[in-house]
């Protein structure tokens, strides 16, 4: 079967998609320039956990923020199912962190990179989660991390390429989205299109949706648009029924002479790209509002005063937290200057904030930066974590 079966790979020129891609570039660049490097690092840790939380929701794996935080501290539940979900969450965060640090094997648009994503994720979770059940026959099949599927599958009404053809389809996939004639805006639109087409190829027995979302994150970063500061997965999970419907609609065959020139519907692909890019812009806007410095510090100050009033924090905590927001990172000795306390008293307040996770530091002598423990996130970043919309 010809690889032309998945054409078109890139939508024809479309002003609405061009405008959305242009808007995304501008807003994402503005968001990235807003934070100091140290504060960006702290927010990146938070957003990776958020991205994992929402990606898990899309897979119907409901892992709480507290469970994710405990998993990152190697504090796992004794209940096997919950423990497995914690390990799954930790694996997702670790792989995304590798992407954010540029530790993948070269360009995202290579078969090697796609296999690497799958292998790195699944090699971090228990082998019992490598098993897939055939819904037609109830046969249980064990997959191998980072290996293309070796058998025929059907996903709802969609029949992906045969296993023997996967390498050819992935080769064509990578060639099409790295074509030199594509402009920067074409490449941004192609991120949305490639998200669908990778899911359509369905290269693995399991984990294709998660791999597609991590892949899209990697491509956006490669293009200088994505960052650790925002996550499209939050928007996809909040509209999961619409997300899955748009994916399915783009699977359909061409609807006639006015529906492009490929085998698949161009109208369906354009609709999916519109949904994906609109969702991306919405999420950049959302994070931009949350990270607006004066509003963030106002929320944090109100919360800190309440914690001091309840005697859960010491007086002098707010100037230190405020410094962490304004500078991103500061030396421990600066705590005395900013609070006006004697060095020993200032160190006591600082250590309390570190012990509670509101500040973090790699060593006892390192500079400190802002931390985001679960008990503060809802107040500092309202609506960051929400259950997905029904549907």
Verbal overview:
This protein is mainly alpha-helical and 391 residues long. It folds into 2 domains: 257 residues, Fic-like fold, CATH 1.10.3290.10; 88 residues, Arc Repressor Mutant, subunit A (Orthogonal Bundle), CATH 1.10.10. 57% of the residues lie in helices and 3% in strands. It has a 3-stranded antiparallel β-sheet with strand order 3-5-4, sandwiched between helices. It has a two-stranded antiparallel ribbon with strand order 1-2. Strand 4 and strand 5 form a beta hairpin. The protein is globular, with a radius of gyration of 23 Å. The model has no long low-confidence stretch (mean pLDDT 92).
Quick rundown:
This protein has helices at 15-32, 37-58, 65-72, 80-100, 111-122, 166-177, 184-201, 208-222, 232-238, 240-249, 266-290, 293-309, 317-327, 334-339, 343-355, 374-380, and strands at residues 131-133, 140-142, 329-330, 359-360, 368-370.
């Amino acid at each position: 079967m010809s690889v032309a079966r998945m054409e078109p790979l890139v939508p024809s020129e479309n002003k609405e998609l061009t405008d959305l891609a242009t808007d995304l570039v501008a807003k994402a660049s503005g968001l990235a320039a807003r934070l100091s490097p140290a504060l960006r690092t702290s927010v990146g840790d938070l957003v990776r956990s958020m991205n994992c939380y929402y990606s898990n929701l899309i897979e119907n794996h409901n892992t709480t923020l507290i469970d994710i935080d405990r998993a990152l501290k190697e504090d796992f539940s004794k209940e096997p199912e919950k423990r497995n979900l914690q390990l799954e969450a930790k694996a997702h965060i670790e792989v995304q962190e590798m992407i954010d640090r540029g530790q993948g094997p070269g360009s995202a648009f290579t078969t090697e990179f796609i296999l690497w994503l799958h292998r790195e994720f699944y090699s971090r979770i228990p082998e019992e989660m490598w098993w897939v059940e055939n819904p037609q026959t109830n046969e249980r099949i064990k997959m191998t991390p980072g290996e293309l599927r070796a058998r025929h599958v059907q996903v709802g009404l969609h029949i992906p390429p045969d296993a023997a053809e996967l390498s050819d389809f992935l080769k064509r996939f990578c060639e099409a989205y790295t074509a030199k004639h594509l402009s920067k805006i074409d490449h941004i639109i192609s991120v949305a299109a490639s998200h669908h087409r990778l899911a359509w190829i369905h290269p693995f027995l399991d984990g294709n949706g998660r791999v597609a979302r991590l892949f899209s994150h990697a491509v956006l970063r490669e293009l200088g648009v994505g960052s650790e500061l925002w996550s499209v997965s939050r928007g996809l999970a909040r509209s999961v029924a619409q997300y899955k419907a748009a994916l399915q609609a783009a699977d359909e065959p061409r609807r006639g002479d006015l529906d492009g020139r490929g085998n698949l519907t161009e109208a369906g692909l354009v609709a999916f790209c519109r949904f994906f890019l609109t969702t991306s812009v919405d999420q950049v806007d959302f994070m931009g509002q949350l990270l607006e410095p004066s509003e963030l510090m106002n929320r944090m100050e109100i919360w800190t005063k309440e914690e001091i009033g309840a005697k859960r924090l010491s007086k002098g905590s707010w100037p230190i937290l405020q410094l962490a927001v304004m500078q991103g990172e500061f030396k421990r000795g600066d705590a005395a200057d900013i609070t006006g306390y004697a060095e020993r008293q200032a160190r006591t307040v600082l250590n309390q904030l570190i012990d509670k996770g509101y500040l973090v530091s790699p060593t006892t002598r390192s500079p400190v930066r802002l931390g985001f423990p679960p008990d503060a996130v809802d107040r500092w970043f309202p609506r960051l974590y929400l259950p997905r919309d029904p549907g």
